[in-house]
Amino acid sequence: MKIVRVSYTVKADYAEQNQQNIRQVMADLQKLNHTGIHYHVCLGPDSKSFTHNAYFKAEEDQQILLGLPSFKHFQEQLKASGPEAPPKQEFLTLVGSSNSFFNS
At 99, is the secondary structure helix, strand, or coil? Predict the structure, then answer.
């Protein structure tokens, strides 16, 4: 399993567009219904700080997300917006979970 957390802060006037771009990525992932990806994004109380948490069963599953046209568009637009705090990526290790992410 691979776990990636990315956090960043956008300018206030870009926050809504960023949310729309994320919703499109999520809609595309839901259509794919790929069982090797669990991905969620949270918005902080300042309404402009985002935290992405992605759980991948295998490296190949991460490549599926990275290859989505909507994800590429999201990344391009985010970079072009000039975030207040640029994306910081962390790789995490699961210690425990209240439910199973991947069956098998």
Answer: coil
- CATH number at 72 reads 3.30.70.100
Please tell me the predicted confidence (pLDDT) of residue 102: 81
Give Cβ neighbours of residue 27 (< 8 Å, ≥ 6 apart).
70
The answer to the question of residue 54 being in a domain is: yes
9: region left, alpha or beta (phi > 0 left; psi from -120 to 50 alpha):
beta
Local structure of 5: helix, strand or coil: strand
Place 99 in a pLDDT band, splitting at 50, 70 and 90.
Answer: confident
Rounded Cα distance, 4 and 87, in Å: 12
**Rounded to 5°, angle at Cα 76 from 70 and 80:** 145
